[in-house]
TrEMBL record, chain A:
Organism: Suillus placidus
GO biological process: clathrin-dependent endocytosis; intracellular protein transport
Record-given protein name: AP-2 complex subunit alpha
Clathrin adaptor alpha/beta/gamma-adaptin appendage Ig-like subdomain domain boundaries: 699-810
Compartments where located: Membrane, Coated pit
Primary location group: membrane
Keywords per UniProt: Coated pit, Endocytosis, Membrane, Protein transport, Transport
Membrane topology: Peripheral membrane protein
GO molecular function, one term: clathrin adaptor activity
InterPro entries, A to Z: Adaptor_Complx_Large_Subunit (IPR050840), AP2_complex_asu (IPR017104), ARM-like (IPR011989), ARM-type_fold (IPR016024), Clathrin/coatomer_adapt-like_N (IPR002553), Clathrin_a-adaptin_app_sub_C (IPR003164), Clathrin_a/b/g-adaptin_app_Ig (IPR008152), Clathrin_app_Ig-like_sf (IPR013041)
UniProtKB/TrEMBL annotation, chain B:
PROSITE patterns associated with the record: CLAT_ADAPTOR_M_1 (PS00990), CLAT_ADAPTOR_M_2 (PS00991), MHD (PS51072)
Designated name of the protein: Mu homology domain-containing protein
Family indicated by similarity: Belongs to the adaptor complexes medium subunit family.
Record-level GO BP terms: endocytosis; intracellular protein transport
CDD domains assigned: AP-2_Mu2_Cterm, AP2_Mu_N
SUPFAM superfamilies assigned: Second domain of Mu2 adaptin subunit (ap50) of ap2 adaptor, SNARE-like
Domain MHD: 169-424
Pfam families the record matches: Adap_comp_sub, Clat_adaptor_s
Localisation per UniProt entry: Cell membrane; Membrane, Coated pit
Keywords linked to the UniProt accession: Cell membrane, Coated pit, Endocytosis, Membrane, Protein transport, Transport
Keyword Ion transport: no
Lipid bilayer topology: Peripheral membrane protein
């Protein structure tokens, strides 16, 4: 601080010196009165204001109520001196809560500071926004913060703060930030030179990408690339190495980010990622002496293992990690044990085979007795996840034994988990009943109603079980102290199935009645009414104890509880009807089996898992649970997309119109990433660049192997292509035409129908393009099935501002056709075999003649042969007619034959094009492609 | 009984620590410090943690604490604490941190004397002073003689008095001191008015005199008899010094006693009916908009013109956002004290029947959160000599002694208020 404020120092010294609270209060009251007077009198210079506001802040921090000085603080913000501005901002962030009216006055000053060319003011303003984070500020200022973040002139530390400010605003007011619109621009900052900026932006993107997966899909490549550079190429400045680990925070964030996305299809990315993960695991194979080094390494390692599991739970990497994890769970450090168990639970939740985990079952069970409760919890989760039919008896037995000594906080969850496991992996029903009753009698209060409902459901639906269940329940009821849940189960089961065991010695009706009734006085009203229902059932099946039962009904007719009284009255009159009456029998028919329903237990368990800041990418439980969950979440997003009603429907229809007129793209029905994109309301597929020359270049390339695809003042994109069967290779030449490097260069391929066509870069594209040079990128394409839309190449880069160009790549189905030579007879034979529609596609369209009034036959030939069809000479008697044949190679659907006949008519200026193919889709598509090219000159 | 006795200062540091029994360790003091001194939520004077009870009394930022494990009579323990405080006061004037530190040897001596194995013992100040002296050295011969006297006195019928007191001039002073508590609503109705009184006596009488004490004719004590006349003086909760013969009082309502030598408190009482309020305060306080408050306060002396109230201090609260107060007074001085958010109006003397007025305007500053001013009550302190608010009058004090000497008796009355004479507005 420039000038030290003597008054403030004195004030603080006085307060510190006050021996008792009363003196302190007196001093503060006095000071406040003085400040009020000064403020009221006005005419204060900046220094005085600063001093008094500082005193107010100090008083406020001490916990006293302060209700003056807000205006002065607001004035200080607009001061030009740093120290005054700083105190002003401090006061604003401390004194004003987010709904304070004064914030409205501040917004403009803050905007001014954001716009200023002074980094320090920028930072102060950013701090204030992040600290207060009111919705009004978010609405008014998020644009400005974003501008600071992306501005090329911003200093790194401003960028860092801006990114974190946006993160805070997004967390607080997610609707205010147009996350999808900013996606590309924000992702491009992940290529920043400064790792600090990258960390901050990655944090921001992590938050945004969770909610806008598709819009931020580009970050996948960026993250992989960054990891590669960080871990393998060691490209980082020394300041970012933390105990020799290159920026562990960034690594963890990137690895976590990658887990939000489904594993990439791109082979290159996969191999790079594999290499990265492998390196990380190798690095941390040897624990080092240094605690900090270990911590950093473990942090990265655990996240890497999680990612490996996420990518492919059966890869050898996961095998390696299982070995590592095994070492961790018996580590001496509590944190490591905790993380080890947690990650193992992840593994158990995703892996196909639990064998590697079962080897460590003993250790895991021992962890249930760990001294740290959080570790015990994780061990419980892990045991729950790794349980299957083979080890269920062991695990459940162990859990039951542990339940008796477990913490109260843990018991309810344990009970639920034991109940689920018992039901799911029961080898025999007897075991199920034994275990669950043991559970109810052991855990007592922690047993939710769902548990015993489920027992009743299962017993009712399983006929073989009923007698056994009745016996076991009876035995349990005989013990002197029983829990109420057990009485409920007992009441129900004995009522329904008591007669099955009534003839055995020791289970006579009277004994059953006595045992059950002896418990009734300790029970609440709802249990008693359940017991009354049991008694009426017994009136039906055990006439020998009818007098006792009627006696009970008689007594209950006078209790205060309305429910009990009503039941008793109804049952009493029902029981007192003459013996030959059939009403009772009809009423007390045996319960029909319940319709099979999903156990309510799992729902209950899932409800208990609160949402934390980061979405979990998996849940506890076996593999099926995770699969189910994925399906559910997908389903859940569907209704959301249709919810807004007709407006969206027409909206998407419009969008489809536009798209189909461009290139017949039907984006919203692509298989892989459909739902959330519509929910966001933003179109995922980039908008394709248009323009007459773009169209010309593109059309030219559809029937030639090389040429220019796009060109403007900054960049030139050219293409060379080679096709062999169903495979093709495109060399994309990217030329930088200006004198500065294009940074944060990203190129991505968007394929609509990834089932039919795959396009991947041979390696991750470099992210800078040196001035006046050309770089080449190889793109591998493979045709799997017939497809109808062109893939889209999106190139984005920073040249001053962020630019993004999307262009269709001239990869059509005809590129994968190989011409065949056929004789006249062969041709017509096949032509006839294929026959008319639907496997024939035909179109008649007008054509223009060339300058001399002749048909442009040369061009027609060029177009047809450019589409890889072999022109057959001497097949058609009319020389101006063209006949061609070819075979389409696809990797999935195999080969598809294709015949073409073009009949131009000079007089009518019309042309008839007929395509016959063994596949109707192919016929229509080839027709569409060639017709479009031939038509062109008519326009 | 009491197992341990501590004195803590404001910060929770132990100044005095005495364990009477072995059932506690010294570290029990830490428990009190953590649970009570540093825990601002606890304001109850008795805290029981497990089977341990802490009784504490606060005086001048000191905590006087007794700790026990048994179920003792709480009133007894508090009486013990207060008795300790009054003993300490009479030994070294003021009880605060500094005086405790300066006199710690004396204090240990005292607390060992007034309690034995946790049981309270003779705590009569005059008696104690005869053998626990602040002067250090007494010659041993006298000490031996004295100590035998002490023994006879402490074990005799009148443990509070020695038999061989001789004065040239036999005098007895009686001071009736009453403290008036009042809270009056803004409308002028009395919400609560009562009087705490005590009769302090200084007896310088020879021999073992038998005294008889007579109060008002129409006196209702402890309101047992319902038929008290409306203008009668009613006393509740009378409490007498141990020298008063209670059985005589119970049967015939006469107060007779053999007084201890020197100063003692003869009686304590409370009166809640027919309280005469010496000062009448009529406040008019208006909030003018949000920027000003105007005050107009009249104080009227409500007693005979011969008497006068002295040291009258009115504390008139101001809103918390006051910037300054402009006061006009005819009598005394008025000043805004920002540290306490009050205007202090001091009047040295008000004659009976006189009226004083105060008018002021307070300027306010604007605040962020507009909250209603709570209007705390006006607080009045004063002293009026020769007046009892309860109407209590000493009719006679008779002294009978074998030698039948003549004695001179003086009676003084004082009514005062400090801190609890409050008028809302």
């Amino acid at each position: 601080m420039a000038a030290n404020m003597r008054g403030l120092t004195q004030f603080i010294a006085d307060i510190r010196g006050a021996r008792v609270r009363e003196l302190e209060e007196k001093r503060i009251n006095k000071e406040m009165a003085n400040i009020r007077k000064k403020f009221k009198d006005g005419n204060l210079d900046g220094y005085q204001k600063k001093k008094y506001v500082a005193k107010i802040i100090f008083t406020y921090i001490l916990g006293y109520k302060v209700d003056v000085g807000h205006m002065e603080a607001v004035n200080l913000i607009s001061s030009s001196k740093y120290s005054e501005k700083q105190i002003g901002y401090l006061a604003v962030t401390l004194l004003m809560h987010e709904n304070s009216d004064f914030l409205r006055l501040v917004v403009n000053s803050i905007r001014k500071d954001l716009d200023e060319n002074n980094e320090v003011s920028n930072c102060l303003a950013l701090h204030a926004i992040a600290n207060v984070g009111s919705s009004e500020m978010a609405e008014a200022l998020s644009e400005d913060v974003h501008r600071l973040l992306i501005s090329p002139t911003s200093q790194t530390f401003v960028k860092k703060k801006a990114a974190l400010t946006l993160l805070r605003l997004y967390r607080k007011h997610p609707t205010v930030i147009p996350a999808a619109e900013w996606a590309l621009r924000l992702v491009s900052i992940m290529d920043d030179q400064d790792l600090g900026v990258v960390i901050c932006v990655t944090s921001l993107i992590m938050a945004l990408a969770q909610d806008h997966l598709d819009a931020y899909a580009v970050c996948y490549t960026k993250a992989v690339d960054r990891l590669h550079r960080l871990v393998i190429e060691g490209e980082y400045s020394a300041t970012y190495a933390y105990y020799k680990v290159p920026s562990p925070w960034l690594q963890v964030k990137l690895l976590r980010l990658l887990q939000y996305y489904a594993p990439s299809e791109d082979a290159t990315l996969r191999s790079v990622l594999h290499e990265v993960l492998q390196t990380i695991m190798n690095n941390s194979a040897e624990p080092s002496r240094n605690v900090q080094h270990n911590n950093a390494q473990h942090a990265v390692l655990f996240e890497a293992i999680s990612l490996a599991i996420h990518l492919d739970a059966s890869s050898p990497l996961v095998g390696t990690s299982a070995v590592l994890l095994a070492r961790f769970i018996s580590s001496k450090e509590t944190n490591v044990r905790y993380l080890g168990l947690d990650t193992m639970a992840h593994l158990a939740a995703r892996a196909d085979s639990l064998e590697p985990l079962k080897k460590h079952q003993g250790t895991i069970i021992l962890s249930l007795r760990d001294k740290d409760i959080s570790v015990r919890r994780r061990a419980l989760d892990l045991l729950y996840s790794m349980c299957d039919t083979d080890n269920s008896e062991l695990i459940v037995g162990e859990l039951l034994r542990y339940l008796k000594v477990a913490d109260y906080a843990l018991r309810e969850e344990m009970v639920l988990k034991i109940a689920i496991l018992t039901e799911k992996y029961a080898n025999s029903y007897k075991w199920y009943i034994d275990t669950i009753l043991q559970l109810i009698s052991a855990a007592g209060d922690h047993v939710g109603d769902e548990v015993w409902y489920r027992v009743v459901q299962i017993v009712t639906n399983t006929e073989d079980l009923q007698e056994y269940a009745a016996k076991v329940v009876f035995e349990h009821l005989k013990s002197p102290s029983t829990h109420e849940s057990l009485v409920k189960v007992g009441g129900y089961i004995l009522g329904e199935y008591g007669h099955l065991i009534a003839n055995d010695t020791g289970y006579s009706p009277l004994e059953q009645f006595q045992v059950l009734h002896s418990k009734s006085q300790f029970c609440v009203a709802s249990t008693r009414s359940l017991l009354l229902s049991t008694y009426i059932k017994w009136v039906n099946v055990f006439p020998e104890i009818k007098p006792q039962l009627i006696n009970i009904f008689e007594r209950y007719r006078h209790v205060l509880d309305a429910e009990l009284q009503q039941r008793a009255c109804e049952f009493y009159s029902l029981a007192s009807r003459p013996d030959d009456d059939e009403v009772l029998q009809n009423v007390c028919e045996e319960m029909p089996p319940f319709p099979p329903r999903v156990s309510a237990l799992i729902g209950r368990l899932n409800r208990k898992l609160g949402d934390t800041e980061d979405k979990r990418t998996w849940i506890h439980g076996g593999k099926e649970m995770n699969l189910e969950r994925h399906a559910n979440s997908r389903k859940a997003t569907l209704p959301g997309s249709s919810a807004p009603g007709t407006a969206t429907v027409t909206g998407t229809a419009d969008a489809q119109d536009v798209m189909s007129s461009l290139a017949g793209l039907n984006l919203s029905s692509s298989g892989d990433q459909p739902d959330s994109s519509r929910v966001d309301g933003s179109v995922v597929a980039p908008r394709v660049a248009v323009g007459p020359s773009v169209e010309k270049w593109f059309n030219k390339l559809t029937y030639s192997a090389e040429g220019v695809l796009y060109e403007d003042v900054q960049i030139q994109i050219g293409i060379k292509s080679r096709y062999q069967g169903h495979l093709g290779q495109l060399a994309i030449y990217l030329g930088n035409k200006i004198s500065v490097p294009l940074t944060s260069f990203t190129s991505t391929i968007h394929v609509n129908d990834s089932e039919a066509l795959s396009a991947t870069f041979a390696k991750i594209p470099p992210n800078t393009l040196v001035p006046r040079t050309q770089s080449q990128q190889l793109l591998h394409v493979e045709c799997k099935k017939a497809f109808s839309s062109f893939p889209i190449l999106t190139v984005s880069f920073l040249a001053g501002a962020h630019q993004s160009i999307s262009i269709r790549l001239p990869i059509s189905i005809t590129k994968f056709i190989e011409g065949v030579k056929l004789g006249q007879a062969d041709f017509f034979e096949r032509w006839k075999v294929i026959g008319g529609p639907p496997r024939e596609a035909q179109a008649v369209f007008p054509i223009t003649l060339d300058g001399t009034g002749q048909l442009d036959l040369v061009r027609y030939r060029q177009v047809v042969s450019g589409n890889h069809l072999e022109i057959l000479e001497d097949v058609d008697p009319n020389p101006s007619n063209l006949v061609a044949a070819g075979v389409l190679h696809t990797s999935v659907d195999g080969k598809v034959g294709c015949l073409l006949r073009l009949e131009p008519n000079r007089e009518a200026k019309l042309c008839r094009l007929t395509v016959r193919s063994t596949s109707e889709d192919v016929a229509a598509e080839v027709l569409r492609l060639i017709e479009k090219l031939l038509r062109l000159d008519s326009s | 009984m009491i197992s341990a006795f501590f004195i803590f200062n404001q910060k929770g540091e132990v100044l005095i620590s005495r364990l009477y029994r072995t059932d506690f360790k010294r570290s029990i003091a830490d428990v009190f410090r953590i649970q009570v001194v540093s825990n601002s939520d606890v304001r109850s004077p008795i805290i029981t943690l497990g089977s341990t009870s802490f009784f504490h009394v606060r005086v001048n930022n000191l905590y006087v604490v007794c700790v026990t494990k048994t179920n003792v009579n709480a009133a007894l323990v508090f009486e013990f604490c207060y008795r300790f405080i009054s003993i300490a006061k009479s030994y070294f004037g003021k009880v605060d941190e500094e005086s405790v530190k300066n006199n710690f040897v004396l204090i240990y001596e005292l607390i060992d004397e007034i309690s034995d194995y946790g049981y309270p013992q003779n705590s009569e100040i005059d008696t104690l002073k005869s053998y626990i002296t602040t002067e250090s050295v007494i010659s041993s011969a006298i000490a031996a003689e004295e100590s035998s006297k002490i023994t006879t006195q402490a074990t005799g019928a009148t443990s509070w008095r020695r038999g061989d007191v001789k004065y040239k001039k036999n005098e007895a002073f009686v001071d009736v001191v009453e403290t008036v508590n009042l809270s009056m609503s803004a409308k002028g109705t009395v919400l609560r008015a009562d009087v705490d009184g005590h009769i302090q006596m200084r007896a310088y009488l020879s021999g073992t005199p038998e005294c008889k004490f007579g109060l008002n004719d129409k006196l209702v004590i402890d309101k047992n008899s319902q038929g008290g006349a409306s203008d009668a003086v009613e006393l509740d909760d009378c409490r007498f010094h141990q020298c008063v013969r209670l059985n005589e009082f119970d049967t015939s309502r006469t107060i007779s006693f053999i007084p201890p030598d020197g100063e003692f408190e003869l009686m304590r009482y409370r009166s809640t009916s027919n309280v005469k309020l010496p000062l009448r305060v009529i406040p008019t306080v208006n909030e003018i908009g949000t920027t000003q408050v105007s005050y107009n306060i009249t104080v009227k002396a409500n007693f005979g013109t011969k008497l006068s109230a002295t040291n009258v201090v009115l504390r008139i609260p101001t809103p918390l956002n006051t910037t300054g107060v402009d006061c006009k007074v005819a009598n005394g001085k008025a000043k805004y004290v920002p540290a306490e958010n009050v205007v202090v109006w001091k009047i040295p003397r008000i004659q009976g029947g006189q009226e004083c007025t105060f008018s002021a305007t307070a300027g306010l500053t604007s605040t962020t959160t507009r909250q209603v001013w709570a209007r705390p009550p006006i607080d009045v302190d004063f002293e009026v000599l020769m007046l009892t608010a309860s109407g209590l009058i000493v009719r006679f004090l008779k002294v009978f002694e074998k030698s039948n000497y003549h004695s001179i008796k003086w009676v003084r009355y004082l009514t005062k208020a400090s801190g609890s004479y409050q008028i809302r507005f």
